[in-house]
Design brief:
Helix 6 runs parallel beside helix 7. This protein has two domains: 191 residues, Medium-chain alcohol dehydrogenases, catalytic domain (Quinone Oxidoreductase, Chain A, domain 1, Alpha-Beta Complex); 144 residues, NAD(P)-binding Rossmann-like Domain (Rossmann fold). It is globular, with a radius of gyration of 20 Å. It has 364 residues and is α/β, with parallel strands linked by helices. Strands 3, 5, 6, 9, 10, 17 and 18 form a seven-stranded mixed sheet that branches. A six-stranded parallel sheet has the order 13-12-11-14-15-16, sandwiched between helices. A five-stranded antiparallel sheet has the order 4-1-2-7-8, with no helix packed on it. It starts with a strand and ends with a strand. Bound molecules: zinc ion (2 copies). One zinc ion (ZN) binds next to helix 2.
């Protein structure tokens, strides 16, 4: 029996979401039905509007309560509160060895808008539409999710705090802690301090990186980065960013991290490295960035690393981030602005304008 729910749907020819009643498919044996409490909005939702066939239901940072479980689920039960993380297949060599963030099917399972078997989880007026974004499509009052993607959390945490974690914040913190493994006393330059970049700054501060240089074009975001741990800030719209970085770090930086997906910025993130330095990059899968001649990398014996999801295993990493936050060491609540679900279009435009760093929708 299908379940009728309210979803924010994006249609052809209109970038605003419209609220519609949609039908969720029957649960597969390894899926659960979740009553949504909150959903973060990440820049990938902005990009997702053009990556999925429309009509589409987006949203990939859900948190909620399990309302129904599939016949082969056993780890979680009805009434459990969960954070919904990214999709992974569970069968490929990377998943089997625990590197679920680089599942062989990462792109298909998270960005194709359907289950891996090609079926749709959502119908609008009887027609299948794009859903299952990151195997959740959390911009809805209820959502179908694979049991293996879920992280069980305590009921005592505020839903908006939980929903801010599973993509951008986890990716930024994970890039520093899990992927690049920055150590105390090593230098770090973070390009773009939206939610991913601010989380990288906080993680850099946590491990004792120094200096931590934040680069952005928005003075408010740079001010925020300063309060979260950046030792230096550079407004790249007003200053020569490479010259400023070289003034601070004449040998270059041990690490750089580009969150912008911008050609000039990525190339600067490579040029600012010291010999043997490491540049991490996060980017949308369909955004092509030309890289400078490889001799610029080679002449520095530098490393360029694509980072997926902060090399995070959410079942381990999300509880760790919650604990660090409770100890005051990872104050990501400073990034959050909450919005009612019905104000999703305002939340999206505030994210794009930079007014809000981490918008979170309250679905209740
Ligand atoms: Zn896999
Ligand atoms: Zn995301």
């Amino acid at each position: 029996m299908t379940t009728s729910v309210t979803a924010a749907v994006v249609h052809d020819g209109d970038d605003d979401f419209r609220f519609e009643t949609v039908e969720l498919d029957d649960l597969r044996s390894d899926e659960v039905l979740i009553r949504m409490e909150a959903s973060g909005i990440c820049y990938t939702d902005v990009e997702g509007k053009n990556m999925l066939a429309r009509p589409a239901v987006l949203g990939h940072e859900g948190t909620g309560i399990i309302e129904k479980t599939g016949s082969d689920t056993s780890r979680l039960k009805i009434g459990d509160r969960v954070v919904m993380a990214f999709g992974w297949c569970g069968d490929c060599p990377n998943c089997v060895s625990g590197k679920i963030y680089i599942c062989d099917h990462n792109i298909a399972i998270n960005f194709d808008g359907k289950r891996l078997d090609g079926s749709s989880t959502i119908k609008l007026n009887g027609q299948a539409i794009s859903g299952a974004f990151f195997q959740q499509s959390s911009f809805a009052s209820k959502s179908i999710c694979l049991e293996r993607d879920l992280v069980k959390v305590s009921g005592k945490h505020a839903p908006e705090m939980l929903a801010a974690l599973p993509c951008g914040v986890m990716t930024g913190a994970g890039a520093i802690l899990n992927s690049l493994k920055v150590q105390a006393g090593e230098s770090l330059v973070v390009f773009g301090v939206g939610a991913v970049g601010q989380s990288a700054v906080m993680a850099g501060k946590l491990v004792g990186a120094y200096p931590i240089i934040a680069v952005d074009i928005n003075d408010n975001r740079l001010e925020m980065a300063k309060t979260l741990g950046a030792s230096h800030t550079i407004n790249s719209a007003k200053e020569d960013m490479l010259r400023r970085i070289k003034d601070i770090l004449p040998r270059g930086s041990h690490f750089s991290f580009d969150t912008t997906g911008n050609e000039k910025i990525l190339n600067t993130a490579i040029d600012c490295l010291a010999m043997g330095g490491h540049c991490g990059i996060v980017n949308a899968p369909d955004n092509e960035i030309p890289i400078l001649a490889t001799n610029r990398l080679f002449s520095r014996a530098a490393h360029l690393r694509s980072i997926y999801l902060g090399s995070s295993v959410p079942g381990r990493f999300i509880p760790k981030l919650i604990r660090l936050n409770q100890e005051g060491l990872f104050p990501y609540e400073r990034l959050i602005t909450t919005y009612k679900f019905e104000d999703i279009n305002l939340a999206m435009s505030d994210l794009i304008s930079g007014k809000s760093i981490k918008p979170v929708l309250e679905m209740l």
